[in-house]
Design a protein that fits this description.
heterodimer; A: about 130 residues; alpha+beta; 3 helices; about 15% helix; B: alpha/beta; six-stranded mixed β-sheet; three-stranded mixed β-sheet; 8 helices
């Protein structure tokens, strides 16, 4: 059974958003369900700090066994940090997707977009469906 | 809805990847799913999208042997393309389930087609376990055919088909090599400087003869028709797809893409 923390927001493309102590800055990664479906992750391609994305723009890719999949920005904003540790240890996305497997920190430019994200219960129905 | 069936002859690596991507964009835009069958000339080493090549592969060695190099848009490891039939399936995600299920389904179609030729092909058992990467290193300079994974096409326990996927939005590109004659030892020679036995097997090894390409193409199409319950309409690239592919081929020929890592 996939873990779906109740304090996060989610997308239908299986990314999550976690608030940080820095107002307007959120952590983005892929969900436990996503990492399970993908299989062993062997490479994560991430953007550079300072890049800007619109909602649902591709901000990177994740490669698992044989398949490369796009990663979509849940909100519009600017990248303020990327998880460089994933370059040497992409498998941490599998083992700890909500912790050490975080991918980017983004400063949200349009906070109203947060209202379009899914809560844990709604995402759980989507992932289980 | 009929799928489009596009059958092309041999082309160079950059053109082949560009056509696959142009068709992928068409399906993303709402076009019909496509099955394309094609071959390669000159012979070509294709790298996975994220496979390290810098320092692992000397282009001059490949060029001296008349072997082209291209980096695919899909994941996975290196494949040598010469005596083979390549398939590319472009379809909406969810048509056959999630990407991993799609991977197995398309391989079951190919395995069914191989049985038409008298080849006993099986699909490696999928499990409920998470697919494992078979290298301890995250991505390595290794041949694709050195490893097997659940859902792959095997003959006598050896790998007949090497495939890779790209999933973007709600569209999947899966393409792969159905080996006529293996040749995969070339990958080890180019990447490691030494010949090494591989786990690959070609149809010629199994049948004791080189199969007729037309018969092989017909068998693959029949496998898709019977296993996937789809029908095909023969098609070719439309003008705008040809133009798009010509533009994309420039990227696939560029050093910036091929040697990106």
């Amino acid at each position: 059974m996939s873990q779906i923390p109740t304090d996060l927001l989610y997308t239908e493309e299986h990314e999550y958003l976690r608030a940080t102590g820095d107002e307007g800055v959120y952590i983005v990664g892929i969900t436990d369900y996503a990492q399970g479906e993908l299989g062993d992750i062997v490479f994560v391609e991430l953007p550079k700090v300072g890049e800007k994305f619109g909602r649902m723009d591709t901000f990177g890719t994740v490669e698992a066994v044989k398949a490369v999949s796009d990663l979509y920005s849940p909100v519009s904003g600017e990248i303020v940090a990327v998880n460089d540790a994933l370059a040497d240890n992409p498998g941490v996305v599998n083992s700890d997707p909500y912790g050490e497997g975080w991918m980017i920190r983004i400063r949200v430019s349009n906070p109203s977009e947060l209202d379009q994200l899914l809560g844990a219960e709604e995402y759980g129905r989507h992932a289980g469906g | 809805m009929d799928w489009r069936l596009i059958v092309h002859g041999p082309a160079d690596g950059a053109s082949n990847m560009a056509i696959d991507e142009a068709l992928f964009q068409g399906v993303q835009a709402g076009g019909r799913p496509v099955l394309r069958l094609y071959r390669w000339n000159p012979s070509c080493l294709s790298l996975g999208r994220n496979q390290p090549a810098l320092g692992a592969l000397d282009p001059r060695t490949a060029a001296a042997r008349g072997i082209d190099i291209v980096r695919r848009p899909t994941g996975g490891l290196a494949v040598y393309h010469d005596r083979e039939l390549t398939y590319a399936a472009l379809l909406p995600a969810g048509r056959f389930g999630r990407p991993r299920a799609t991977y197995g389904m398309l391989h079951r179609a190919i395995a069914a087609g191989m049985r038409d030729l008298g080849v006993t092909a099986d699909v490696a058992q999928a499990t409920t376990q998470r697919p494992r990467a078979l290298h301890t290193a995250a991505l390595s300079s290794h041949p694709c055919f050195d490893t097997t994974a659940p859902g792959e096409v095997l003959v006598r326990g050896r790998k007949l088909v090497g495939s890779a996927q790209r999933c973007e939005g709600r569209t999947i590109l899966q393409h792969g090599s159905i080996l006529i004659e293996s040749g995969q030892v070339v990958v080890a020679e180019l990447l490691n400087g030494e010949a090494r036995a591989t786990a690959a097997i070609g149809l010629a090894d199994v049948l004791g003869r080189v199969p007729d390409v037309d018969a092989l193409q017909d068998a693959v199409v029949h496998g898709f028709t019977s296993e996937c319950r789809i029908t095909f309409e023969r098609s070719d690239l439309e003008h705008h797809e040809q133009c798009r592919a010509a533009m994309l081929a420039e990227r696939y020929r560029s050093d910036a893409w091929t040697w990106r890592r």
